[in-house]
Task: inverse folding
């Protein structure tokens, strides 16, 4: 593939251009049960304070989650997810950076866009027509994540998970564009940790520079994930920031445009150094 810098990710008042730097998405979970920081920012006061702190640390955008996607967690109904986002408008008003909401539900996405969000981070792996029409009509940013129903769903085909991921993105991008969504609205996420074991996560990571598109933004989201803990023998998710930073440097070398992280301050330092090495950038 040609490696050019023409890709951009934009919509509803934001625009990120490939090559300017590696952008950082700060994680703000307003859940009681997320795998790393569940319950810490579930209250309105704590969430608003942490949103401001993530921006101060150098986040280029926020990703607000109201339903845990940790392994083994049970999904909640849209009305409960929306109830947890009741103060989303106050979060959006607190910061000057765009806000994303991750969800699997078009009902939640519609609420989020009506209350200040600029991006929908769809972690379903199977966007339906209602979601696509909402994205097209609103002009918001849209993150498409690669996810299958269970581990091993791709192991019997030629090329394994790497081939399956490439096919998934090819088919879904064609569907999104046919639905009238603009390419610049899109960002692709390989879905590290979602129904993938250690070998599958690492295979996707190693192939990121092959799977990713030159003309569409690429997100790497592996902050504090279990597979990083397994590599480094770190059981507590809260202790995985250093290994996350190491993975961030590797992801930048593989062409990541956007990194979704808990510890923005540490990963910003990592990105500054990695950008200087791999992207020939020296300014912060």
Result:
């Amino acid at each position: 593939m040609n490696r050019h810098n023409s890709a951009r990710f934009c919509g509803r008042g934001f625009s990120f251009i490939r090559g300017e730097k590696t952008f950082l998405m700060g994680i703000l979970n307003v859940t009681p049960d997320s795998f790393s920081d569940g319950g810490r920012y579930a209250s309105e006061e704590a969430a608003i304070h942490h949103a401001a702190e993530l921006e101060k640390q150098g986040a280029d955008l926020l990703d607000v989650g109201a339903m845990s996607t940790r392994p083994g967690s049970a999904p909640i109904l849209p009305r409960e997810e929306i109830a947890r986002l009741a103060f989303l408008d106050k979060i959006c008003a607190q910061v000057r950076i765009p806000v994303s909401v991750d969800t699997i539900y078009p009902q939640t996405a519609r609420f989020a866009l009506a209350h200040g969000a600029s991006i929908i981070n769809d972690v379903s792996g199977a966007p339906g027509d209602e979601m696509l029409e909402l994205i097209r009509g609103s002009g918001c940013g849209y993150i498409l994540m690669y996810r299958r129903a269970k581990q091993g769903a791709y192991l019997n085909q030629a090329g394994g998970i790497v081939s399956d991921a490439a096919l998934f993105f090819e088919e879904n991008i064609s569907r999104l564009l046919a639905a009238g969504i603009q390419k610049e609205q899109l960002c692709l996420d390989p879905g590290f940790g979602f129904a993938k074991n250690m070998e599958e996560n690492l295979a996707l990571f190693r192939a990121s520079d092959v799977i990713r598109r030159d003309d569409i933004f690429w997100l790497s989201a592996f902050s504090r994930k279990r597979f990083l803990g397994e590599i480094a023998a770190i059981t507590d998710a809260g202790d995985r920031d250093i290994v996350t930073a190491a993975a961030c440097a590797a992801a930048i070398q593989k062409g990541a445009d956007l990194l979704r992280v808990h510890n923005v301050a540490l990963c910003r330092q990592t990105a500054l150094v990695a950008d200087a090495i791999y992207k020939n950038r020296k300014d912060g």
